[in-house]
Amino acid sequence: MQFIDFKKEHFTKDEDTHDFVIDISKDEIGFGEIRVQERKDDEIYDDADYEIEDNFDTVTIKMKKPADIRVNF
User: Fold this and answer.
1) What is the C-alpha to C-alpha distance for residues 32 and 17, in angstroms, rounded to an integer?
2) What is the pTM of this model?
């Protein structure tokens, strides 16, 4: 399994829903299943609270607050 790490600065705020979102191209992560983990203290990652919106060529991750995350694919 591969992963990409994102910092909380990569998120943008959706003014309509007040969620924080990040768009990832499927060229980067492929078309399979993904899992999102939030970085905790001391480089430990735990399952994050998130929603995924799967579009034709991108995946949008929505969270209630921005966080440093790891996207496993």
Assistant:
1) 27
2) 0.89
Among 25, 12, 7, 22, CA closest to 69: 7
Which three-class secondary structure state does DSSP give residue 29?
helix
**Token pair of 20, please?**
């924080």
Residue 26 token pair: 């499927």
Q: Where are the domains of the chain?
A: 3-72
Contacts of 47 (CB under 8 A, 6+ apart): 35, 36, 37, 38
Looking at this protein, which amino acid is placed at residue 63?
M
Q: Report yes or no: 52 and 22 within 8 Å, Cβ to Cβ.
A: no
pLDDT tens, N- to C-terminus, the chain (73 residues): 899 999 999 999 999 999 999 999 999 999 999 999 999 987 899 999 999 999 999 999 999 999 999 999 9
